[in-house]
Amino acid sequence: METSNVAESMIEFAKTERPLVSILIPTRSHERMLEICLQSLLTHIGGEIPYEVVIVLNAATEELRDFVQYRTRGVIILESAANLGVAGGYNRARSVARGEFLLLLHDDTQISPVWLESLLETMATHPAAGAVGSYQLFPDGRPQRAGSILWSNAVTSAAWGESQPTQEYLNGVRAVDYVGTCSTLVRRSAWDAMGG
To answer: Among 23, 30, 107, 172, which residue's beta carbon has the most beta carbons within 10 A?
Structure first.
């Protein structure tokens, strides 16, 4: 790899001494998906919020390890020889995270403008909430998730039921049984109280 190519394609995050948010990303393979995820963070995350990025290489492929080592700067990199899974990866990342809030982010997620600001604002206006999930879209723009219901028979469904949700519904804030981990903001105190 030529030096000029490395410099042109470097994904560099600013370091902060006191992050408010720790963005936790477990990953195993598919360096291109991770690259798109990290680029969306650089493009859309606000400059006003101090944050850190923690990447857990979960028994990662050599290509992914090379990508993280040679094409990223300003991230905290943890390696695990064993695949810890998503939950284990988040727990491993938490072991070094310094933020008051933990942002669980899947490596194939692309964020939108004011994404983090919206999550933090929701946390501020709902101090009893331990976690806040994002409204998620499929790649074609259809609604994927805005919280989910866990039924007594262990079956899950979208919080809006069988019909298509209205935009008003999707933009609202409501209590749900659970939110997926592809983009979820959690209070570190709640995480630690639950034991991870």
So the answer is: 23
